[in-house]
Amino acid sequence: MMTRIFWVMFVTALVMGSARLNYGAPGPKFTDSGGGNKHNLSYSNTNVNFKATNSTDMRARQICIFCHTPHNARPQTTLWNRSDTTQSFGHYSSSSLSLHLDATARTASDYAAEPNGSSRLCLSCHDGVTALGAVLAGVPIEVNGSMYTKMTGDHVFDRAKITNSHHPVSFKYTAEVVARLKTLENPVSDYWLPADAPSQESPGAPGTNKARQFVRLDKEKRMQCTTCHDPHQSQFYDTNTPPLTPFWAYDGRGLSTVNADTVHDEVCYACHSFKTPNP
Amino acid sequence: MPVAAVLICLVLLSVMPAFAADYTGGVHLDRSKVPRGCSTCHLKFNFKDGGGPETCIVCHGDPSRLTRQYAGMPRGFAPRESDMKNIEDEFRKPFRHPTFDVRGVHRGGETLPEADPRMPRHAVCVDCHNPHHVSPANKFAGIKGRRVGNLISTVTAEFELCYRCHAESANLPGRFNNKRAELASTNPSFHPVEAEGKNTAVVSLIHPYKERKVTPGDVSIISCGDCHGSESSSGPRGPHGSLNEHILVENYSTRDNQPESPHVYALCYRCHDRSSILGNESFKFHAKHIQGTGGIAGSNGTSCYTCHNSHGSVEYKYLIRFNRSVVSPNSQGQLKFVEKGISTFRGECYLSCHGVDHNPRVY
């Protein structure tokens, strides 16, 4: 009996602790509201397209192993357990992208190479070529009945998508870059740094953007996938098909109207202004 | 109500966001009108020009499109406004901008006027409208004008928008000419688009049009859109398409040898009083030129266009520029107009027209 009480208290303490942690920096979640967390590739997950299927492989039941390992990790990031993607993606190169066209903006933003940093880590699954179970430590883990199962569908990022229709990633987003873009695009205002961004609810008030605490540039000040997306769990679960806010980093906190649209757009507004220059 | 409750209410009211009240963005970013926000056009990484004209007409085309579902747009994308005009219909008319006719040649970030003579003429929606900034009050908000050094100016007047393609473009077809040159306020005469006109006496102006703005109700400046646009009064404003040639809001015939009627020169008669013109209240031979001398073949009148250029004249006052396909030099090889006095509606013409030698004709 005492043991049971101890475990109840222990679990309660863990949940409360994690709840407190979640307020600041949400950690990994096994499932998301309404279904399995798609980044949880472990055997026990439900309602997901891809997951480990070999119940006799003990690694199949580990949640973190598909991306992380405590030993012999690759140096890219914390305890990284995946091989680098072998694909060549290029960069978004629409002729409307000043970041791409203007030498000054390109240099200041270091917009010259392949996707790098955490975006490149995401591509080690999302390239549609690398096996989902291809971990660095040991042989690949069987996913959907095969060690060679790759990601398919809309979530695959290939060269065509990265260079044509996807939001540009892996560029440095600094005050210098913003200043250059404003010069090129719209002298009044087309961009701002998240810290300066007004909220969509009060566009006239600078620095009130509710998503700015959640929208993160990496340590080199680069905009990456993780700027908008939290790979461990979606902070805002929406029921749209397809969801407007997949693995969204921002939970809508602070907005007076919290729905998929407002939560989605507040993140856009963190960097994009669209203030009418000549009303 | 207890004082505390009142205070709480006041505090709440003071910190409540002024949603949409001080909205500074374009209408597409106004959530009260576009309920799904950015994702309406940018779902599933549709960031390449937002999808082009085909995406625009989902909302701005045939109303039946609004009830369908699209792979690249979220459920419930339909705007809340119900008074949107059907732009798609305009582009089905015989005279229209080449928005759906010329596909796949628009490049984002084009520098206009076009510098490459080989570039195909085209006009997609974003050439004239910036979807992020456009508003009912300013249809071309956020459109970039010409690059000046490092800076790109924004278009603040409609004619600047039109000049992007209809002025110095290197790919102007032979039948087009530089509209900036024709409408320049340095010309001897011009329709008052860039500025108030120079002439102090303009023929037969209908109220409220005036040569100079004196009282608040006077209209002394017009815009390209006053003449170029849909022929339907209930249609969308702007020169998307028209049943009239040159995308004109009213009919305007430039042909020679045709009977005059309110319809033939309806465009001119919007601002210039027909009965005054045909009553020779200004130029005393107006009726003779426009109506001809009788109904028999060969004695019909000629178009306003035979003597006047609609945009402006680099040679003469009163928009006089002779249409060389109708008017030729006189027996002395002269082709010119000479004004007598200033704003007296008196002058001399040296030309040959309909076999009649003006050498000169004085009025």
From TrEMBL, chain A:
InterPro entries with a match to the protein in the record: Multihaem_cyt_sf (IPR036280)
Keywords (A to Z) from UniProt: Signal
Signal peptide: 1-24
Name listed for the protein in its UniProt record: Cytochrome c
UniProtKB/TrEMBL annotation, chain B:
GO molecular function, one term: metal ion binding
Reaction(s) this enzyme catalyzes, per UniProt: 6 Fe(III)-[cytochrome c] + NH4(+) + 2 H2O = 6 Fe(II)-[cytochrome c] + nitrite + 8 H(+)
Pfam families listed in its UniProt record: Mtrc-MtrF_II-IV_dom (PF22113)
Domain Outer membrane cytochrome MtrC/MtrF-like: 157-314
Keywords, alphabetical: Calcium, Heme, Iron, Metal-binding, Oxidoreductase, Signal
Subcellular location as annotated: Cell envelope
Main subcellular location of this protein, as a coarse class: other
EC assignment: 1.7.2.2
UniProt entry tagged with the keyword Cell wall biogenesis/degradation: no
UniProt superkingdom: Bacteria
Keyword flag NADP: no
InterPro entries: Cyt_c552 (IPR003321), Mtrc-MtrF-like_dom_II/IV (IPR054337), Multihaem_cyt_sf (IPR036280)
Gene3D superfamilies associated with the record: Flavocytochrome C3, Chain A
Enzyme class: oxidoreductase
Signal peptide: 1-20
Annotated Gene Ontology cellular component terms: outer membrane-bounded periplasmic space
GO biological process annotation, one example: anaerobic electron transport chain
Record-linked PANTHER family: CYTOCHROME C-552, CYTOCHROME C-552 RESPIRATORY NITRITE REDUCTASE
Family stated for the protein in its record: Belongs to the cytochrome c-552 family.
Protein name per the record: nitrite reductase (cytochrome; ammonia-forming)
Organism: Geobacter sulfurreducens (strain ATCC 51573 / DSM 12127 / PCA)
